[in-house]
Amino acid sequence: MLILSPLFEPYGYGPVFIAAMGCVFTLFGVVGSVVSGILLDKFGCYLKLYRAICISCAATFPLLLWTLPSLKTWLVGANMAVSGISVLPMLSVGISFATELTFPLKETVTNGLL
């Protein structure tokens, strides 16, 4: 809540709403991580998925700054859900992609360097 409070409090959102948005972000991020893991196992589309995640991150955070002053809680919640889906899987997809790019090396070497 300490991270989200400076972002939400100037617009008049209370601590309960801020905590709920943190939960929405985390829960949808876990769902996004599971879905991205399934997609990577099934199709192996590392670069396409990483590009989609980066574009989604680049689109949702400026959109959050536009939706916060509107005081529409459902819109802010939807934006936080999409942000969670795109931000949390970024690290795991990126490390998996780097491991695939450096294939002759062992996975432990690549993960250790990253």
Give the topology.
Layout lengths: L4 H4 L6 H29 L2 H22 L5 H15 L1 H13 L5 H7 L1
Question: Overall mean pLDDT score?
Answer: 91
Q: Major beta sheet, specifics?
A: none
Quaternary structure: single chain
Q: Which percent band covers the strand fraction?
A: under 5%
- Number of separate helices: 6
Helix content: over 70%
Radius of gyration: 17 Å
Label the overall shape. elongated
Distance between the termini: 29 Å
Regions with pLDDT < 50 over 5+ consecutive residues?
none
SS-based class = mainly alpha
**What is the H/E order?**
HHHHHH
- Tell how many strands the DSSP assignment holds: 0
Question: How would you sum up this structure, described in words?
Answer:
The chain is mostly helical. It contains six helices and no strands. The mean pLDDT is 91.
